[in-house]
Amino acid sequence: MRKSLPLFLVSLLLMQSILSISVQNVEATMGRGGSTDDFSVTDISINSTSASQWIQPDGSVMLYVAKGELVEISVEVKRGGASLQGSNATVTVEMVHPIGFVMNTTSWSTTPLLGSQSFTDSFEWEAFVAHSYLDVSNNELSGGIIIRAHVFNPSDDRNENDMLEEALPVALSRDDMDAEGDPRDQQLPTASEIISSSSFDLLNPSIPIFVM
């Protein structure tokens, strides 16, 4: 009995050491950071019943609004990895004037996201400031209010995809075209409209007045 007791204690200590090493390995494998806790902003979308599409010289389409119109801005964030334990993040969206002034800040929290899950939320913003630039030599529209979206999670150590920006051109005003004559010419302007708008483009039949 006396000989077996020390042997039992030695065996117990050995098992405890093995269990401790195993737990440390599991914790290292499930450690924070990396792709498991990588949250990213994947999309910014602009929705407005009054928004218009501007056709660029290369055929691409840019959305723009006029000053005073309401815009719904949606932001999608995603958690990477394949974790089965939920974790939430804070999303912050800033409306930034090109000179660097932050005009509006909105934030919300996501639901607890598993690995590879996404979350989308939105808010409304009134375009009370106009900003855009129209190159009249080729009718290319650029500039606008910058929509800057951030996502934050304290365990996220991969920050290169935590922010996404999207420009929203805002015109001073916009008037619908008033075509005359043949119904087939409904996309063509009257002579007075051509003279009054240096930003007229046959591919863009409305007459927005952009900030030059």
Descriptive tags:
212 residues, three-stranded antiparallel beta sheet, single chain, alpha+beta
Q: Helix and strand layout, with pairings?
A:
Elements: H1 4-29, E1 39-47, E2 52-55, E3 61-66, E4 70-79, E5 90-96, E6 102-109, E7 118-126, E8 133-135, E9 140-142, E10 145-152, E11 163-168, E12 170-171, E13 173-175, H2 191-196, E14 207-209
Parallel strand pairs: 3-12
Antiparallel strand pairs: 1-4, 2-3, 4-7, 5-6, 5-10, 8-9, 10-11, 13-14
Could you provide a short overview of the structure?
This protein has 212 residues and is α+β, with helices and mostly antiparallel strands.
Describe this structure in words.
- 21% of the residues are buried.
- This protein has a domain at 34-174: Immunoglobulins (Immunoglobulin-like), CATH 2.60.40.
- It is built from two helices and 14 strands.
- By secondary structure, the chain is α+β, with helices and mostly antiparallel strands.
- The strands form five sheets. The chain has a four-stranded antiparallel β-sheet, with no helix packed on it. A three-stranded antiparallel β-sheet has the order 1-4-7, with no helix packed on it.
